[in-house]
Design goal:
By secondary structure, the chain is mostly helical. The chain has helices spanning about 5-10, 20-25, 50-65, 85-95, 120-130, 140-155, 170-180, 235-245, 260-270, 305-310, 315-325, 325-330, 335-340, 355-365, 370-385, 385-395, 395-405, 425-430, 450-465, 470-485, 490-495, 505-520, 525-535, 535-545; strands at about 35-40, 70, 135, 185-190, 200-205, 205-210, 220, 250, 275-280, 280-285, 290, 350. It has a 3-stranded antiparallel beta sheet. A 3-stranded mixed beta sheet has the order 11-10-12, with no helix packed on it. The N and C termini lie far apart (about 95 Å). Glutamic acid binds near residues 41, 233, 251 and 255.
């Protein structure tokens, strides 16, 4: 083992002793049963919807138990950090209303960014070195690669253990020589684990879990040739969750195999263990099987997909809560959002995330919202994601509200046409003359075959004679009269009986008007649309067909 002065000489002389940190981060004063949880994303990638799912459960459990919840950004792998990842995290937390309850502005357990906690980790690395529970390793990349290749050839597990742990039992002289030569080194944990041993722990979601013990001397402090000496994830987890006084580590199931190592680290550091709960991952159905939701293959895996499309947050949270606790999916939305998520009801096998189901829930939810609330939500979404729509909506609030109210308010079955805020432009854009491209011909519609001259005279007649009538029957009589004047049958049946006498029936005329006014063969009640557009605009749009 290295002598204490050599060990201390590897660290800044001013580095605090562990008791300084223990006092700086005292035990929390908590009511019985209160849970302190955290969500700890690494900025090596963008947040996945599974991250929102985990963060939502983390925060919910903390809130309902009277504890607290924070976000710790785990940026110790700085070479793999992605530009903009941290900003994306915060956008996602804000969008989904899962901001931390505790952060650098109000919490005393920070900094909440690992790269700003480097000294804390160094204190504990030094401590483990002094106690002989960690050691310096000067193995080069090439030596490690050669060991891995030899292990593979010998068909033994790869890793740094036993006879393969080149520096575990190196003599102090060899270490002093390597240091004197200025060779870079990492610090490794001297694992007490024995190959073949089993360990157990009790998971708050899954119950007792048994696994093979860790016997790898993992790296705990990265290479000394880095300007900022940072620990690895595993070591930082133990130090931070202890000092930040977390009492429930609620995280994704992919971390279960690391628990064996984490338990060893807690023990070596002299920290009491923390309760673990591992959340089942979100799955996607593919054919008859299920697979992990994949960032690469599934757009809905990315949080940006929900933010950019403007999925209504309460509906998404409702859906996710239902995946966590099936019982919540059976409650009405408001009740389900207020009810606690119970770990005892979280499943241990993956939950199936189904975009079609989510969209149905969203459509149902939007259908319960009053028009002015939908207007506000779309406007807010458009401010960031569709500035042109934002401007037009802000300038024409009355038009937007009139449009939204059609077949929505005061009717038994309100329209379920909006699943997300980005649906507004394709569905309601035609109500705004600024967003509506005039329709000059009927190509691509079932009326495309109608003679151009017939259509043109029909459109100019309409433009000359049209009036904005409030009575729906009287309003539609105009269309009937128009049909008659231009040799369209009064009913589809009449047309069918004598097709050679007519260009079509009143149904085609109404459809021509619909396409001219809305750009589509499908729209809400035509009279309501025309009333919302106003006489001048109706005439302008119909006139475009006269050319
Ligand atoms: N930083 C880890 C991750 O990004 C978090 C693991 C944990 O929650 O302990 O997955």
């Amino acid at each position: 083992m290295l002598d204490r002065s050599t060990i201390d000489g590897l660290f800044p002389a001013s580095l605090p002793e562990p008791d300084v940190w223990q006092e700086r981060y005292p035990d929390r004063v908590l009511a019985p049963g209160a849970k302190v949880t955290r969500f700890s994303p690494s900025p090596t990638g963008h947040l996945h919807i599974g991250g929102v799912y985990a963060a939502m459960i983390d925060k919910d459990v903390a809130l309902h138990s009277g504890g607290t919840y924070f976000v710790r950004v785990e940026d110790t792998d700085q070479s793999r950090e992605i530009d903009g990842a941290k900003e994306q995290f915060w956008r996602a937390f804000e969008y989904f209303g899962i901001e931390p309850l505790e952060d650098d502005t109000n919490g005393v357990y920070g900094p909440y960014l690992q790269s700003a906690r480097a000294d804390i980790y160094l204190t504990y690395v030094r401590q483990l070195l002094r106690e002989g529970k960690a050691y310096l390793c000067f193995a080069s990349r090439e030596e490690l690669a050669a060991a891995t290749a030899a292990q593979q050839a010998a068909k033994v597990p790869t890793g740094y253990y036993g006879a393969w742990a080149l520096w575990r039992d190196a003599s102090p002289v060899a270490v002093a020589d390597a240091l004197a030569e200025g060779r870079p080194y990492v610090v490794r944990f001297r694992s007490p684990g024995v190959a073949g041993n089993r360990v157990q722990y009790v998971d708050a979601i899954r119950g007792r879990i048994e696994m093979e013990d860790n016997y790898n001397d993992v790296v705990i402090l990265k290479s000394s040739n880095q300007p900022l000496r940072l620990p690895t994830y595993h070591f930082a987890h133990a130090v931070d969750d202890h000092l930040m006084r977390v009492n429930l580590v609620l995280r994704a199931e992919e971390w279960i195999p690391s628990v064996a190592l984490h338990l060893q680290l807690f023990a070596a550091l002299g920290f009491p263990t923390i309760e673990y709960a591992h959340i089942a991952q979100l799955l996607k159905k593919e054919g008859s099987s299920k697979r992990k939701l994949s960032k690469r293959k599934d757009p809905e895996a990315s949080v940006d997909f929900y933010v950019e499309s403007g999925f209504p947050v309460p509906a998404v949270l409702y859906y996710l809560r239902g995946l966590a606790n099936g019982r919540l999916a059976t409650l009405p939305l408001t009740e389900a959002l207020a009810a606690p998520i119970l770990l005892s009801e979280c499943g241990s096998s993956g939950a199936l995330a189904d975009l079609v189901k989510l969209e149905d829930i969203c459509a149902d939810h939007v259908a319960t919202m009053p028009s002015d609330e939908i207007y506000r939500e779309v406007l807010q979404w458009a401010a960031t994601h569709d500035p042109e729509l934002w401007r037009v909506m802000a300038d024409n609030q009355d038009v937007a509200l009139r449009a939204l109210k059609i077949e929505r308010e005061g009717v038994p079955n309100p329209r379920k046409d909006l699943k997300k805020w980005s649906d507004f432009r394709p569905i309601y854009g035609y109500f705004f003359h600024e967003l509506f491209p005039l329709v000059h011909d009927l190509t691509g519609t079932p009326m495309a075959g109608i003679d151009r001259a017939v259509m043109s005279s029909l459109a100019s007649d309409f433009a000359r004679s049209y009036t904005d009538l409030s009575d729906p029957q009287e309003w539609f009589d105009q269309i009937r009269a128009l049909a008659q004047r231009h040799e369209f049958a009064a009913t589809p049946k009449e047309h069918k009986a004598a097709p050679e006498q007519y260009h079509g029936s009143v149904r085609e005329v109404a459809q021509i008007v619909r396409v001219a006014l809305t750009g589509s063969t499908r729209s809400p009640d035509l009279h309501a649309v025309a009333a919302s557009l106003g006489e001048a605009e109706v005439i302008r749009r119909m006139s475009a067909l006269t050319a």
